[in-house]
Every structure is written in structure tokens, then in C-alpha cells.
Amino acid sequence: MMMKKLCVLVCPMDWGLGHASRCVPVIKAFLAAGCRVLVGVSGPGGELIRREFGMTGTPVTAGQNGVAGQPDKVPCRDMLQIIPFPGFSVTSYRKYFLQGLLLRVPAFLRHISMEKRILGELVEKYSPDLIVSDNRYGLVHERVTSVIITHQLRPSMPLLLRPLEGLVSAVIRGWTGAFDECWIPDCADDPAAGRLTAGHERLPAAFFTGWLSRFSPEACRNSGPPGNPEPPGTGAYSEKFRYRFLFLLSGPEPHRTTLEDMVKAGIGGLTEKALLVRGLPGSFPEREIRGNLEIVSFVDSGGLLKAIRESEMIVCRSGYSSVMDLLALGRTAVLVPTPGQTEQEYLGRWLASKGWFRVVRQKDFDMQKLIARQREGFAGDEAGRAHTGFGGSRAELQKRPIAHKLLLEQRVKDVLRKASGACGRSKS
């Protein structure tokens, strides 16, 4: 007797591309387990998913969705479907992002209610056996096994609001506790998210999944430049790199554009090549050249992996998904937190204190100083060699993506077993 293929509804939060990005390995794991996967997403996150899984009409070539020359198998169209799911519109504030966000709490709560209503309609229409929500607290259903992915159980608050952290954390634990499971994309023994995951021990079903990177373990093992036996970024093998700098932009406006303008204005003194990825899928022009600066609107995982391999120094936001990708590849970077986003500011400080990355505030970002430091051996100083200290030696580091993939696969198997047992009955 043929077993029924379980249907999984995956809904990433649509604040930027990070949540959709870290859902890529989750979607792949469910597809590999033989599930039909529905992805509820809108906006740029939906475009990212379409590109990652070859659903844009563009032929999938070797290396487009995986390691160069070893592409991931693109699933059948009937196994993966994208359905629109509206997100919560965030107004960006130049200095006081979180304070401005707090003013929108009533609207956020109304959005959670709307999510519950839409989810009810989707459950009636598609009858999913499992719901996986990435930071969407309204996507829990009484009749369907529900999982939430989050690394923010205790969000970082501004200094004046710091006394409220405990209260906010308790509210988040209450929302999270309504789900059957909470998946934390981090390592219990050496957390990259620091105290953001504090309080997980108070949840009855919290599980660490390891870093959720869009890059496969094979890609992570081959993250260095071709022919280079040492970790990239030491400055001793600069001739191996195509680009001196790789700038990965992301996040809300106007800060994304502000950083882009700062890079463009200051890049004139660079005599080597640099690549700027704007993080705007679907925008035009898709590619342009300004002197030694190559600008592209967006790259998929294969293109991003190639760019990282070919770049000596990386500059990016300290968004958690970007951090997980770099950690999985064993690469360090200069992190520029989005101003006012206290989570990114905390992550920057935390990761710099561990010696894993270097952090620069956007208001202090200076391309000429960065170029000068790089020429003086910036990539070879203690912070530049940090990728050899991500929890052990280079050899140990290369084993981590495999271990994390196995951890995620085991979690997927366990929750599918739970969802299969819950089919046809209400959850207790």
C-alpha cells in the first residue's frame, strides 16, 4: 500500500531576504523526505525562492543552485508550489528603527490575527499535514502540527527599553509555546546568536537545528579559491581572487540605499576589481559596470557562492542569515549593522567579541579607510584569521555543515512522524 505524501506549508517572514534564504535548506529537507511543499511568501522573498528552485523560467545550469558542476536536483513542479501570503509592512526609521516598530505594535497584532484567518483558509483549501512558520507567530493551527523557526527568544532592546526585555521575552515564549515545536537555527554548544536564544530551556519542545545555510555541505567544503589550500582572506593569496571586495547589501530602506551610495562614492580609489550585490531581486538594470566596480541586482546561491570564493574581503550586514551562510563557509567579513536594528547591532558586537568578525557602524563606514586597511594586511590580522577559530580547526569547521544538515534531516524526520500520527485528528 502506497503511503500518502505529506503536505508541508512553509511560510517565511518577509522582512528582507534572510528568512526566505534560511528556509531554503528546510524546503530542500522536506522535498528530500518525499513531501509536497507549499511555500507561502510574497515580495522579494518569493522571488528568491523561485530562483533558488529554478521556477523563474530560466534554465537551471550546472552550479546555479549548488556547487559549481554539481547542481542540486530541481524538484518536480507538482512537489513545490509557491502561494501568495501577505506580509507585515515595516516602515524604516533612520535612527530609531525599533522604537518606530513599537509604535506599530497594534498593527502587528492585527496582522497576526489576519495571518490566523488566512491560515484557516489555506488549511481548508490545501489540507497541509504540517505547518512550518519562520518567525510568523500567527501561523499555528489547532488541527495541524505546527513548527516555528526563530533565533530571537529574547530580542535585544535599546538601552532605554532594556528593562522591558524580560516582559517581551515572556510574551514571545507565550506565542512560541503555542506551536508543537520551536526550531532554533543555532548551535547549543557554541551559539552564534548569543543571548538572543536565552529562554529556550523554558520551552517544552525547543530544538537546535544547527546553522540553516542555503549552501550545501559540498559547497562549504569547497569554499576557498581554486588551488588555495589555506582559508581565504589571509592576504597571502590575493592573486587567487578575482575581486578585492565583495559588498552584499540587504535590509530595509533607506539604509540599504545609503550604504550602497557610500560604497559607490568611495570606491574610486580602488585599483582592483570589486563586486556589489544590491540584494534587489527583479530590479533593473540587472548588471552594470562603473570603473572597477561591478554591480548586480541579485545572485542566487550558486552565483553568491562563486562570488564569495572569488573575493578576498566581504562586507555585509550583520543579519543572522548572512552570518549563518558565512559561518557555514568558514569566511569572515566586515559587518555593518543596519542602524537602529538592535538585533543586528547586538550580533555585530557579539560576533566581534568572539573574534569571528569585525564590525563597523554605518556612520563610521569609510571606503578609503577600508581600502587602506585592506592593503596594509587587514585581512591577515587577528580578526581576518577568525575563520580558523569558528569552534575549532579548519578541518573541524568543514565537518560542521554536514553535522548541521544531518541534525536538520533528523528533526524533519521526527516532526513528519509526529505530523503523520496527527493526521485526521485534532491535536490534544
Molecular structure report:
With 428 residues, this protein is α/β, with parallel strands linked by helices. It has 2 domains: 7-214 and 400-422, Glycogen Phosphorylase B (Rossmann fold, 3-Layer(aba) Sandwich); 218-389, Glycogen Phosphorylase B (Rossmann fold), CATH 3.40.50. 35% of the residues lie in helices and 14% in strands. The protein is built from 12 helices and 14 strands. The strands form 2 sheets. It has a 7-stranded parallel beta sheet with strand order 3-2-1-4-5-6-7, with helices on one face. A 7-stranded mixed beta sheet has the order 10-11-9-8-12-13-14, sandwiched between helices. The longest helix is centred in the last third of the chain and has 29 residues, at 394-422. The chain starts with 6 loop residues before the first strand and ends in a 6-residue tail after the last helix.
Order of helix and strand elements from N to C terminus: EHEHEHHEEHEEHEHEEEHEHEHEHH
Instruction: Give the beta-strand count.
Output: 14
- Biggest sheet, spatial arrangement of strands: 3-2-1-4-5-6-7
Mean pLDDT: 82
Report a brief summary of the structure.
The chain is of the alpha/beta class.
List its traits.
428 residues; alpha/beta; Rossmann fold; 2 domains; seven-stranded parallel sheet; seven-stranded mixed sheet
Helices and strands in order, then pairings?
Blueprint: E1 7-12, H1 18-32, E2 36-40, H2 44-52, E3 80-83, H3 97-102, H4 105-126, E4 130-134, E5 145-149, H5 165-177, E6 181-184, E7 206-208, H6 217-221, E8 243-248, H7 255-266, E9 274-277, E10 287-290, E11 293-296, H8 301-309, E12 311-316, H9 320-329, E13 334-335, H10 342-353, E14 358-359, H11 367-375, H12 394-422
Parallel strand pairs: 1-2, 1-4, 2-3, 4-5, 5-6, 6-7, 8-9, 8-12, 9-11, 12-13, 13-14
Antiparallel strand pairs: 10-11
